[in-house]
Batch of 3 targets.
Target 1
Amino acid sequence: MSVETIEKKSTSTIRKPAPRYRVLLHNDDFNSMEYVVEALLKVVPSLTMPQAVDIMMQAHTAGVALVITCALEPAEFYSESLRGLGLVSTIEPDE
């Protein structure tokens, strides 16, 4: 009787990090600054009041501001939620 040796090949899978997306807030001439800050705080719970104010001011002065960088699904959720509150928001790949 012969004994066969079975070798296990080690299969290591290399996981690529999920692509990340930037949620952008665009300036508009319709909503008050206070409303924009409140909307940001409501939609993105991880933001602090000073961060929300900074984002609103950046959008107001530069025309667009980065709200958050995250995976696609939450990015779509945040952007759609901001639009649902009457703000102008888009997403783009983070490169």
Target 2
Amino acid sequence: MRVALLLFLFFTLGLVSCAQQSIPKVLEELNDGTVDYISVDALQNMEAPFILDAREKEEFQVSHLQHAIWVGYDEFDITKVLQQLPNKDKPVVVYCSIGVRSEDIGEQLLNAGYTNVKNLYGGIFEWKKEGHAVYDENQQETEKVHAYSKYWGRFLTKADKVYNQ
């Protein structure tokens, strides 16, 4: 989808300088601002939101936020979400590695009528940077986070990086 095209542009056209990039700059460049952000701190204080993981299954299995529901990105199916989360007014927070894929999924949720959708600013990378726990597929706390690729992995600063499981 959009991420694949953007990655192609990054690597073939050299649009992004590795030395000058940061999560805020990447989000500013790649996101449209169609889904409001929520900070890690604000999510910590939010009462019982649905937390949706918009990463690939392999990434989710390495680690995820506690109680997160995997919805994927390439495999995302809005009909499954509608079945799992019928209350469209309940808060929903979507996250991915840093917040790019989760904006796309958040847009689909908003288009489906969900009224309170937020995109976790900085994603799971920021979550770990702020010192919060993540859990593996056995619900055991872990320091591992799937970094998606070497390009994106440079933004993951406070976890054990995993590239392939």
Target 3
Amino acid sequence: MIGGALPKLTERGIVGPEDFPLMRHLHAVVAEDEPLNMPWEKFFGGEPTQKAGKVRR
């Protein structure tokens, strides 16, 4: 599984510790039985925000 390889790749300097945050978190949840606590602030600039006004459909 690639998630288990990421720490080794990070140690070797191939990827940075901030690279692949989703993969790292999913690996921790699935393979290491960590609780789901999605780090939204690391994806696409943070948590989505709602814009004021009507919702367009």
